[in-house]
Design goal:
about 90 residues, mainly alpha, elongated
Length: about 90
């Protein structure tokens, strides 16, 4: 009985995963908006791994909000790196 009370249930963990994913996505989005200015495109090399971490949490959640936010940050980052040849 004690073990059942000591560990949280899946219902308690899943919404927390979405919240963690959204918070990581907002953090990555802030830096992505800053990196969108000219000559700061190299910052996406740091933004994309952070968004991938958020995407991992979003995949573990049953909701789609955090996952979709991180996917958009990753797609914009990859497109910006492709346009700027990985530097600009």
């Amino acid at each position: 009985m004690f073990l059942l009370l000591a560990f949280p249930t899946r219902r308690a963990i899943v919404p927390a995963m979405n919240l963690i994913s959204i918070l990581i996505g907002l953090f990555a989005l802030f830096w992505a908006l800053l990196a969108f200015t000219p000559f700061l495109g190299w910052m996406y090399w740091f933004v994309i791994p952070i968004a991938l971490l958020g995407l991992g949490f979003g995949v573990l959640s049953s909701r789609n909000g955090g996952r979709n936010l991180n996917l958009m940050v990753i797609l914009v980052g990859v497109a910006r790196l492709a346009i700027g040849h990985g530097i600009f």
